[in-house]
Amino acid sequence: MPWRRVFAGVGLIGLFGIVRMPVEQGMEEELRAAGFREWSPDISSRDQLGQAGFAGALGGFRSLVALYFDVKAHSARQNKDWVEVEKFRNVTTTLQPRFWKHWDMAAWDMAWNAYAFYRREAERHRDDLEGWKIEKVTMPLYLEKGVDFARRGAKWLPDSYRLLRVVAEIYSQKYEDKCAAADWYLMASQAPDAPAYVYRAYAHHLALCEGSEEKAYEVTSALYHGGGKRTPTLRYDMEALEDHFAGAAARGKTLAELEAAAAAPGAGYRDLAALAMHLLEVAGDLSAATAAYGRLARDPEAPAFYRRKWAFLLARDPERAPAAYRALKGLYVADPDAFRQGDLRQLAELEEELSILPGERFSAPR
User: Fold this and answer.
1) DSSP assignment of 296-358
2) Residue 176: which residues within 8 A CB-CB, separation 6 or more?
3) Tell me: the pLDDT tens digits for 43-58?
4) CA distance from start to end of the chain
């Protein structure tokens, strides 16, 4: 009878449901462990994947589907189809939000590859309205898209420095906003997996951030005197910040005030550095400045670059130039990284003045 068939059908459905429960529960636990249930795909993602791809993702094949769309993104990039690239990158990051490389490639495609393509297009249309539109609208738009990908990825990977660093690099290299870059490098450096160079990148960008000199000096000085690796960049930043504060004091105080500060009980080498710079750049007293820098060079607390400064001042005196050259050569042999390109040019000039034989010279630009 019809009602018997109805009850039989209901019974079969119920039995099928009971059999499915442990299977679905196991799949659900597996998806949760993989972080998949934290993802709520939106309509656009469903449209982009298509029914078959979306079903495959729900069936546990999302890594394969993501790989498929990653290949499509590469193909679209080769064709310079940046709309398609963005669409496919949205799919791959949606499918595998905890795989940092998908976010990294998405940010790179937008903020570097697409941006570089449109920059060339802007140059090609330099003298017309299209060039202006590309430069003022399209290029900034793709920078924003790159930052957005990296920021969204960083939220999925809060214990990793990688995508935070990507944001920092975009602000540093593309926007040339050193202050914002410093903020993001600092956040990246605080991640558990961050290597030491990320914090050094924070210090460097902070040193380039106008108005942050006090904090930059605090951070840079701690790195310089902390016993870690003194990279050429760290040395340059330390010297630039020392010159910044010494120059501000040298120009903002009288000679009497600076002499009193340098002679006061508890005075440090920075007080003497301000006096030395005033004597050299404000008073124009080379002899007194050389003597002051000589005191700095002998101060064990003062950074080593003051010895180089002193030797170059000595070299201005023709009678003391040979001895200054020998001192500079000794400093260079002991620590060539302490010399910058400008220093090497000065050394080359000094070698010419002293008629140093070519085979005995050491200051060829690196």
Assistant:
1) HHH-TTS-THHHHHHHHHHTTSTTTHHHHHHHHHHHHHH-GGG--HHHHHHHHHHHHHTT--G
2) none
3) 455 555 554 455 455 5
4) 97
The CA distance from 85 to 89, in Å, is 6
Q: Which residue has the tokens 């068939």?
A: 5
Tokens found for residue 34: 């993989």
User: What tokens appear for 97 in the block?
Assistant: 């939000």
User: H or E element: which one contains 262?
Assistant: helix 255-263
Residues in contact with 115: Cβ distance below 8 Å, sequence separation at least 6, in sequence order: 139, 142, 143, 146, 174
Q: Read off the pLDDT of residues 120-178 as tens digits, 9 standing for 90 and up.
A: 999 998 878 999 999 999 999 999 999 999 999 999 999 999 999 999 999 999 999 99
Query: Angle, to 10 degrees, between the axis of helix 82-95 and the axis of helix 100-108?
Result: 170
Give the model confidence (pLDDT) of 240-286 as tens digits. Answer: 999 999 999 999 999 999 999 999 999 999 999 999 999 999 999 99
Half-sphere exposure of 322 (CA within 13 A, CB side): 4
Residue with tokens 């200051």: 363
In Å, how far from its chain's centre is CA 227? 22
Domain boundaries along the sequence of the chain = 315-366
Cα distances (angstroms) measured from residue 95 to each of 34, 45, 57, 77, 113: 11, 9, 7, 20, 23
The whole-angstrom separation of Cα 320 and Cα 287 is 12
Q: Map residue 41 onto helix, strand or coil.
A: coil
